[in-house]
Amino acid sequence: MASTRLLLLDFSEKLAGARVLADRYGANINRMVVPKGNADRLAYVNEFVEEAKASGAVLHFIEHGGTRGVTVAPLGVSN
Asked: What pLDDT sits at residue 31?
């Protein structure tokens, strides 16, 4: 079965003998967007996201929320 890692991890707990492979066939990427032509806003959002990743805030909120199977993109990676 192929699906999002989060869903597969939940299903695997309910299906005896099931396992979730470490590799992936794709990725669900979350984004923050601003309207075209708003370069200042885009720069602010990019800076905010990079600071949140660098400080560990993104990872903290993932862990605090109990979300499994989700990773933080490396610094400087926006796609």
From this structure: 83
